[in-house]
Amino acid sequence: MVRGMVKALKAGAEVDSWCTKCKLVLNHRIIAMVGTAPARVECSTCNSHHNFRARAPGDKAVASKSGSSRAGSSASPKTTSTRGPTKAQQVVLDRERTWEKSMIGRSPNDFRPYRTSELFDEGELVRHSKFGDGVVTRMLEGKKVEVLFKDEARTLAHGLTD
User: Is residue 117 part of a domain?
Assistant: First the structure.
């Protein structure tokens, strides 16, 4: 390869990208391109498909020596401080802390299996077959509840009759 030349990216090639499932910058296979930039990628670690992200959320783009920035970089304002978590990371940390506090000292017998036919109350512990253990955080309109799981809060149906 000639010095200074960069190999053009194409579908099927490998590229480093932020994995939305693994939450790390990992090796990905390009599965779709828009012009000369990767659009969709597949994680080589977990095999999930997602949009290409050159870096972790909240990380600043590193300017190249020529002064140009990578195509597709966002122009949204970022904080200049590199200390502490970003607002998005703080929301995730707060949610996980709330979930962990709800789970402290609970035994497996404290959880009720989730079924749409069951009625749940605020503060009740739920064991969902797909999402895992959660706590009912609010009652919503129309036979719905918000349940906080470790990864995120989800709206689930309850009290439905067959």
Answer: yes
**Helix ranges, the chain (H):** 87-103
Condensed to tens digits (0 to 9), the pLDDT of residues 68-102 reads 444 444 455 555 556 777 888 888 888 888 888 87
Question: How far is it, in rounded angstroms, from Cα 35 to Cα 70?
Answer: 13
Structural domain containing residue 108: 87-157
**Does 150 lie in the same domain as 103?**
yes
Backbone CA torsion sign across 42, 43, 48, 53: negative
- The C-alpha angle 50, 51, 53, rounded to 5 degrees, equals 115
Question: What is the per-residue pLDDT across 45-58, written as a single tens digit (0 to 9) for each?
Answer: 888 898 988 887 77
Q: Percent helix, strand, coil in the chain (nearest 5)?
A: 10, 35, 55
Q: What are the backbone dihedrals phi and psi of residue 137, each rounded to the nearest 5 degrees, phi first?
A: -100, -30
* Cβ neighbours of residue 140 closer than 8 Å, sequence gap 6 or more: 146, 155
> Cα dihedral sign for 12, 15, 21, 22?
positive
Taking the whole predicted model, whether its pTM rises above 0.85 is answered as no
